[in-house]
Amino acid sequence: MKIGFFGVGNMGGPMAANLVKAGHEVTAFDLVPALLEAASAAGARAVDQPALAVQGAEVVISMLPSAKAVTGLYLGEQGILDLIDPDTLIIDCSTIDAATSRRVAGIAADNGRVMIDAPVSGGVGGAKAGTPTFICGGPADAVEQARPLLECMGKNIFRAGDSGAGQVAKICNNMLLAVHMIGTAEALQMGVDHGLDPAALSEIMRASSGGNWSLEVYNPWPGVMPNVPASNGYQGGFGVNLMNKDLGLALEAALTSGSSTPMGALARSLYAAHANQGHGGLDFSSIQTYFRSRDAD
Ligand code: NAD
């Protein structure tokens, strides 16, 4: 298929590359020329104007950093919505607030275009390996139409519901991820403070009722697990700043619906404090260091 791809950054770059590998014709646009060069090296056609990436595209995919970027791309002064063929499916994979996602998809629908939200869970490593989960919101037939393409970039494809539902499900997931990562980190620290070996304690909790994804595949204690950010100075992975962004979206969503999310609110506060202490660029499992006991120094 002919695909117009907007935003070839940390996630979009490898996603576009996987579409090329699957035999699709990808035309990429990004604001950063160096990223376009990398996309070109991976086999995409790089263009320097958004309109050129839309021309002839059967599907348009965007993977942008913020709601502002998404509204700017589709609806801004030089927005591409009107340039997109009405038969072209629009898939926005950015993680943004559900209200904006619904608003942009609604304007697209009013103009005869179909747009779905399909935020991604799985991180940069997952995007490179083609294993992330796509969590879609929008008309069921549009999600089915998108499925074969999403399967070129990811492993699990879900439809959470109507427009914006993908965004809601994604932030519910990331709020829970933050909460169990923090819970895992404080439990490990308390065990170590009482003289336990963090690897042994991890194994015990993993096989007991405290078992969770953080313990199973992403242990936050340095050296317990190979090939995780904790064992590499908390480099790479999913950044504290990005987790903070998602927890902010979760908090906004909770306010909108009047939901009580005390653990999510506390998680947002802890991650904000951790970022304010200068750790915004580290992987989110570095929250482990927030609980470090004074005696450890
Ligand atoms: P990134 O900043 O690396 O990439 C975003 C790219 O979009 C940048 O290269 C930027 O230049 C480009 N861009 C901005 N406005 C544009 C426009 N109008 N037209 C074309 N390109 C434009 O960010 P990322 O890490 O790739 O994340 C992208 C999205 O995926 C975010 O919404 C993020 O929350 C989400 N996400 C990230 C991760 C992760 O681990 N990095 C995991 C899951 C989801």
Description of the structure:
49% of the residues lie in helices and 12% in strands. The chain has twelve helices and nine strands. A six-stranded parallel beta sheet has the order 3-2-1-4-5-6. Helix 2 links the parallel strand 2 and strand 3. The structure holds nicotinamide-adenine-dinucleotide. The site of nicotinamide-adenine-dinucleotide has 24 residues, from helix 4 and helix 6.
The description of the largest β-sheet is:
6 strands, parallel
How much is the radius of gyration in Å? 20 Å
Oligomer: single chain
> Percent range for helical residues?
40-55%
Order of helices and strands: EHEHEHEHEHEEHEHEHHHHH
Which CATH architecture of the largest domain?
Answer: 3-Layer(aba) Sandwich
How widely separated are the two ends?
Answer: 57 Å
Ligands in the model, by name, code or SMILES, are: nicotinamide-adenine-dinucleotide
Q: Give the overall form.
A: globular
Percent of sequence in beta strands: 5-15%
* Unreliable stretches covering 5 or more consecutive residues: none
Overall mean confidence score, pLDDT:
96
Strand order of the largest sheet: 3-2-1-4-5-6
The CATH class of the largest domain, by name, is Alpha Beta
Secondary-structure content class: alpha/beta
What name is given to the CATH topology of the largest domain?
Answer: Rossmann fold
Number of strands: 9
Characteristic key phrases:
297 residues, alpha/beta, Rossmann fold, N-(1-d-carboxylethyl)-l-norvaline Dehydrogenase, domain 2, 2 domains, six-stranded parallel beta sheet, three-stranded mixed beta sheet, 49% helix, globular, binds nicotinamide-adenine-dinucleotide
